[in-house]
Amino acid sequence: MKINFFQIVILFVFLFLIFFLVNNFFYQSIKNTVFSIFSPVEKFLWQKGNSFSQWRNGIFEINKIKIDNNELKKENLLFKNKIIELANIEKENKELRQALGLGLEREYNLILADIISKKTEEDSILINQGKKNGLKENMAVITNEKVLVGKIGKVFNDFSQVNLISQKGFNFDAKVIVGESETLGAVHGQGNFKIKIELLPKELQFKEGDIVVTSLLGGIFPENLLIGKIKTIKKNDLTPFQEAEIIPCFKEIKSDHLFIISPK
């Protein structure tokens, strides 16, 4: 059977329509199906990739925060140290002003010292001034309020030992203030931060709270440095004198600074 030209044209048109329909409808459906199948996988990979990116960025941010935090801690520590240093300077200046306010600088050359440590069993303390600062043995040591603490014992280049007036064997002359009168006596260190005054005339009346200060007699300390207050009084019929226990004023000291009296 012969196929004419018209039939060939009809066949080509028919094939073209089939190709057109497949390309525009079935292809889109296939693409949609493929996308539907693989889209969850792509979404999962994208989310994981995004999460990994966020995690990676988070790690960098955490490291940066840690570095910044460490820097802030260092700066904060330096700031605190500076505050402490300024506070110590202010405290020293305040005590120096108090000492100057009492007129001590008119009477003595004063050397400011810091307390390094205390030896309770020896009734002594260690200070941060020594030979290089002009300190010598037997120099008086006081507070900014003219309270007698002791005297310089051993002296080293950069520090010195202060023997407290309560140290056993520490003896010096003093006087008790009773009203407008003064009575001489002798102070003796008892150890363990205790002192007493002896050789007080029996015929005189003393009471708890009477003030005891230094005397020029003996030449160990300047006059009228505060020693303490009478606590208890003891009388003995066998002797012409009485004695009294003294509460030393240096026990009430809360400062870390002392003054050494140097001769003018």
Commentary on this structure:
- With 264 residues, the chain is α+β, with helices and mostly antiparallel strands.
- 38% of the residues lie in helices and 33% in strands.
- The longest helix is centred in the N-terminal third of the chain and has 97 residues, at 5-101.
- The chain starts with a helix and ends with a strand.
- Residues 41-48 and 79-87 have low confidence and may be disordered.
Mean pLDDT level: 76
CATH class of the largest domain: Mainly Beta
**Contiguous uncertain segments of 5+ residues:** 41-48, 79-87
How far the N terminus sits from the C terminus, by CA atoms, comes to 148 Å
Total discrete domains = 2
Counted beta strands: 12
Strand arrangement within the widest β-sheet reads 1-2-5-4-3-12
Entry keywords:
single chain, 2 helices, Thrombin, subunit H, alpha+beta, rod-shaped, 264 residues, 6-stranded antiparallel β-barrel, 2 domains
Quick overview of this protein structure:
This protein is α+β, with helices and mostly antiparallel strands. It is 38% helix and 33% strand. It comes from bacterium (Candidatus Gribaldobacteria) CG_4_10_14_0_8_um_filter_33_9.
